[in-house]
Fold these 4 entries.
Entry 1:
Amino acid sequence: MSADLVVMGAGPSGLAAAWRAARRGLSVTVLERADHVGGLSASFEVSGIRVDHGSHRLHPATPPHLLADLRGLLGDDLQRRPRNGRLRIADRYVGFPLKPAELAKRLPPALLAGVARDAVTAPLRGAGRAGTYAGTLRASLGPALYEALYAPYALKLWGLPGEEIDGDQARKRVTADSPWKIARRILRGRSDGQGKIFYYPRRGFGQIVDALADAATAAGADIRLGTACTRIEPAAGAVVLHTSPGPGPGSGSGARAVSGDPVPNAGSTAGTRLTAGRVFSTIPMPALARLVEPGPGPEVAEAAGRLRFRAMVLVYAVHEGGRWTPFDAHYLPGPETPVTRISEPANYRVSADDPGDRTVLCFEIPCAVGDEIWAAGDFSGVVRDTLARSGLPPVNLAEVVVRRVPHVYPVYETGYAEHLAGLDAWAGTIPDVTTFGRLGLFAHDNTHHAMAMGYDAVDSLTETGWDGSAWRAARRRFAEHVVED
């Protein structure tokens, strides 16, 4: 069996590419080892309520052409929503996104004085150890905000102190305003209005990937769920892929034991041999290195083994008695709990499908695969303890559902760039194979970034062959992305 294009992974980037390529008339096969599309972007039900794998939103900076395509697929179900979160800092809550007037009133005088002092001394600090996360943010934000907010957050989220994290983590993940700007906004009580809205589908964030899968299938793409690629053999003018049955329900890049909505006409085909004119890989780049034959040399293989992803346990607490709070998310950067964020999916949308007598809260707990958190069995105590320690309302706990996700955030520990550069350079030499996407590029990316990668990859696949210069230009654009929660 052959196809013009085989896409490995049915996340937002892979599905966007499959849809765009199928609309161009190419024969497209998508291989997904899980039993559902979407990966971390999928939604599923807990106690009759649609929930996501953590907190997901479609960013307002989504390019107009992508937003137009999604509106065409989702219609009025794609809702424009006000952002209404809270951040715990210095043992008190402030609105998130940050509201300067509220910060001036709510933050302790000592912290406000520190922000002002850091603004005055900023020219004296220079770049500092800007090569690290700690150095970059101390130099840009100042020591006061860094120690109060970003230092404990880094340790929880990535499992490393800021001094052991590369500065790219700050530049890619944090919108690092200068202390002058922060202090000026606080003193004037004014905000720039950024980050106040987002887009979100009525039936959960996974409605986006479900719609992309439906559209790709309608355009002729063959989406094969429960199908894992076991070997990739680049050959002259073609790539041979071998497949076998996937590891089972909920496996792959998404959470364990999760079933998404069925995809029309998407079957499960195993034990096949495919020949592709081109392969788009959105799976983790270290995993790609293990599949390609012949594989990389020993140095590149060792580098691949040094790249780590942070895992996460997602704990869904069913609360009886209506909505828990009016807020969509609570951010908890402090060390008093292992939880980094609590989101309430029903507050992200307006939907008559959401019951009025109960709600679901999602507790995000970063960890490493196999550690104490990952292996824990009962999280009801963590739920109650987190709420008590964080000054949040208790829950009338009816049920707890747990999902474990092995690949969530790439960890940019110091030295990662050298390891990634060697692996990426090797991946670029695989004939007729292109890697992209959040996992494929070991990158922090929003959904619209991932979709844009899929579109640009297809646009680089011209009638006369692969346009390497166009793809290199696209890769440079990807590298400039700043990711915001």
Entry 2:
Amino acid sequence: MIDTHCHLDLLKKEDYEEAIKDNSLEYLITVGYDRKTIQNALRISQEVEKVYCAIGFHPHTADNVKDEDLDWLKELAQKNPKVKALGEMGLDFYKEYSDRKKQEDIFRKQIQIARELGIPIVVHSRDAEEETYRILKEEKAYEVGGVMHCFTGSYEFMKKCVDLGFYISYSGIITYPNADALREVVKRTPTQRILLETDSPFLAPQPVRGKPNKPTNIWHTAEVMAKLIPNTSLEDVDRMTSENAKLIFNLNTNGKKETITYVINNKLYINLTNKCNLHCAFCQRERERNFMVKGYWVWVERDPSVEEVIREIGDPTKYEEIVFCGYGEPTLRFSALKEIAKWVKSKGGKVRVDTNGLLLTFMPKERLKELVGLVDVWSVSLNAPDKETYDKVCKPTQPDAFEKVIEFIKTAKSLGFEVVATAVDYPGVDMKKTEELAKSLGAKWRARIYESVG
């Protein structure tokens, strides 16, 4: 786990020592927000190998920040390789310890420095969503990206920040009983943009609320996050937030860029191909060219062989199920799918195939019989209640694609397969009507969150 925002210099001595010695904390980002704490953050990062820092001037201090302070900040960031971001900086119109115009001025100037240096920023925003977004956009903060620290804002603000290329960091606040609205935002935050932080010694999570917070408490927040995000375990939260942190803060990564198989929530996923015969508007690969799924880089330069896949699976009974699902359409490699599924079933495993349902556009439906007894469940992306919506959202090249998906579901049901029809709640899709269509076809139903991948 990586605590992406803490104030190590403000911790009690025993909490500080616990944090730097705890091997479950891979990295810590300690934050300096004024001259004194900036110096402390630099000192600690130089003394402790796994500690890096972000340095900047908090909006509370803006009234006292002069141009020479900003020159000093820039020089420190240039000279110290352990400085991984500038901040926290931003706007706080809740407490207003500094004049609003002065806050905006210092915020803009720090973004400009970050752009000059080519490093990300850490943003504090409280009761200032509209103004924060406007400044980020006007100052071209998207050129360096960054982190929306201790996010407590609206869904709309989160989405705008993600669209600017920012990561969204959640703290112990998501564990509080009165944080239902924020938990709904967590559910809809793209998993490739989520981070975790403690902001210790502040904002202790609910199980230890009222006590000074510390980095080791990050697991309380992670446990709540795992319950909020669909199909996600605590291990998944650990991996995906850690990999996200390594990317934005330019920390050491494991260097693995090709993932043939990957585990999410004790299910083993097989990335059989990158090829796909749809160009769905909601697809992450189409929107962002981003191939990160819950901490895995799900992309392969070539289609893996049957032997490679089987070797990576190992014992299929270790997993709840083996799922053919990557960024491509697995049925495009029908023969490989069939051979691997046959091997998995011979070893006692369970097989699910996530498909767009377009198999019958390039293969006679009689071929589907070959997978009887080899595939337990078909998860079919129905995605719309009618052809017009389907064509708009999924952008097929075949004019009869929607009809072929319907035919696939009916054929699979007639052959005795378990079929689950799914849809992404993309704007413009009537989910209620899509559910009604799925059930009228005899399929089970599962709604998927647009922003949640994996």
Entry 3:
Amino acid sequence: MDKKLIVVLGGGESGVGSAILAQKKGFRVFLSDSGVLNDTHRETLQAYRIAFEEKQHTGEYILTADEIVKSPGIPDTAHIMQKVLEKGIPVISEIEFAGRYTDAKVICITGSNGKTTTTSLIYHILRSAGLNVGLGGNIGKSFARQVAEESYDYYVLELSSFQLEGVYDFKADIAVLLNITPDHLDRYDHNLQHYVEAKMRIIRNQRTEDAFIYWIDDPLVTKEIEKLKPAATTYPFGEKKNGHMAAYTENGKLYIQTKENIFDMELELLALEGMHNVYNSMASGIVAKLMDVSDEQLRTSLSDFKGVPHRLEKVATVRGVQYINDSKATNVNSCWYALQSMRTKTVLILGGTDKGNDYTEIEELVRKKVRALVFLGKDNSKLHAFFDGKVDEIKDAGSMTEAVEAAYQLAQKGDTVLLSPCCASFDLFKNYEDRGDQFKECVRRL
């Protein structure tokens, strides 16, 4: 009997991790990437003696696979995927694949916004409490590679809608759904319901003994819950106490109520600022209490957490103007949260690759808080069409240096310059990290 062939499509972090796990489990493995692999990934594959190709997908070999582990970034519309689907080869995600080979408890976090912060905060709380825990999914090291090479008792996984599309038998012991707002609609035929359904796969296969934590004030989420009637035990959180709630705020305090215990903490002691971060702290706190983290330990972790790079990250103050890097805001709703937490007049830098954005959501905040706009992108026509006439000063920039220079000229003492682009970064940058790093570099040069 010939060993099964696993083909991994995409040679990024998750692809390389999946290939290593497949090899360890005794499969024949082939990895294929239509682009150029980065040096580290190439060297890793060579060190493990895993067969791979780059700059192409060789159809005749890929189409002999018994199963395909697909990178979340490859859409089903890609030419090779059309052929794979025609042939009926099973396609799964790295998360599904790795989930088969671990007995660890998995805590999974999804949502349009706040998932990296919440995932990092939960990981910080559990690690500080001394648990043997790994961090993976859309963040940190590949989940599959950790399953292959480490032995953790728990995993905290950030899951995007793209990753969730490829899960079938995988089950979250604790699932967290923060919110659902229009994002990546270009991937979902501009149909919001398809995106919602991808997100809701996080509760797939959950049973009564599993936990489902969600934001009760999100109409899209609550509508789906009524429809799907999850089997898991539910733990809703929201701003105000309303019926049975696992977390809420009252009189300047955050309350978390699970089992018999009621935990409380002053909102002003939370490390993260802004109402959206109160929600992220609530979700994280519910997870902590379900896992029996002590009140004292939870209080410490919620107050000493350092935040996530490129998410409302304070860079420097130059001539009385504060510069904030929120490059991770790749959709309109993220930018809304950022503007919502601004306490001063703001010069806002936005633009990039538009994903079918509707800017009406931030229009009121822009009119109220924004002194000037700087559009940073190859094509700013859609931004001009929407914002022209709504803000006095608008400048275009074709590079980060130009954008920061323009913002520097436009800002007045006491203002904030905020990079919160609303868009993907691929027109001028490698990714949002590259965009944020360039911003920080330009600010430091001021």
Entry 4:
Amino acid sequence: MRLGLISLGCDKNTVDSERMLAELVGHGAERTPVADAEVILVNTCGFIDAAKEESIETIIEAGRMKRDGACRSVVAVGCMVERYRDELTDSLPEVDLMLGLRDLDRLVPELQARGLLTGPAPAGGVHPGERIPLEARHVRYLKVSEGCDHGCAFCAIPLWRGKHRSFELERIVAEAQRLEAQGAVEVNLVAQDLAHWARERRDGTDIATLLEALLRDTSIPWFRLLYIYSAGLRQPLVELMAAEPRLLSYIDMPIQHASDTVLHRMRRPERSATLRTKVAWLRDAIPDLTLRTTVLVGFPGETDEEFRELVDFLDEVPFDRLGAFAFSPQDGTRAAGMEDSFVPAAVAQDRLEEVMEVQRAVSGERLAAEIGRERVAVVDAPAGAEDPVLGLLYDEPPGAAQLGRIESQADDVDGATVLFGAEGLAPGSLVRVEIERAADFDLAGSVREVVRPASALAATMSPAATPGRGLPVLGLDSAWGR
């Protein structure tokens, strides 16, 4: 079976997609470009309206390829299917198989029953944690739990993924070791809230315990924490981050708003005074800390005064990185029932643009302060001559360059660093770079030394080079949140 896989949405979805790919390849599938695929598998996202639209458009395009090309079957799985299966079944007849998050253990049997997946069972049995990278091998994501216990009024994720449940420490460490063996240099820990890992066990273990095990049992040079509520940032974790250089001084801490009345309506646990105190403590405790956050504008009932409270907070307590989005009602959430107080879409969009302009100024000022400093960066990929990042930094680039990221730039969301003098270095190499130029969200500089060359695996295997039959395979079972 020639398989084309399209993964949409967040990096937690990426982890799910890599597990599905490993299982299907282990049962005889061959990964190919989508245009050449017999089966197109779309892992959908339903987080906000724009994500749903992208998922539906992708499925429709896959259906066109089934009608006009080599594709024999379209399979849709994941979050959007979990939530809207009945409606999608009626409106997307081009889809041959739909599986929600709780049904992914049926993926292989269903494809086998349809005569699409005909390879032998994998040798060696089931190996939990086996994944095949979708793209770069040197930067990977490690999901440590599934589901969410927070009751945020705007969020439907608990409706799709269920209540929070932590994965076992030993299984997470084993998966990290597999990622390292595949060439991982940077591993980003993800969950709906990292601080909730092991909370339900009530045995004294917490996210700091897990990080200590990962540091002890792997040699991965960069670990990054994404998605951790401020309420869960405790002394043991902060002290570990301050002391351990392999834990990047980077925290992604979504606040969503800074008006106490809006936070109350959102059913968020923090308030503005607590957030101010927490940010000050973190910056004092962790040297050179990079703080990223996410905010939501246009929540039902948000007044001009409440929005100004958010803007004033972002001026007073600036974050190094910020993502923002406008409210869109999600079926089944409390906020979806607040129709009488919905903020007009045009007003919400204006507020979104204002927040991003505020952040543009903050980011530009903070990145300008990097000029003249030396930072460690990871090499990601060669920079094309027409790459827009080059145009933001140079009228005429001085020569061939690589794109990379310094420690304070997370993959895909925080901009890039243009690296001159890194020609010939494989993705995954760590270099020391002197920063010479800065734009609003990007940097450029010259490499002074190679800190760590890429592993042989990362240097020689392309993302499309996938193992063949007999690959140890992950069983998509309840232990991983199915």
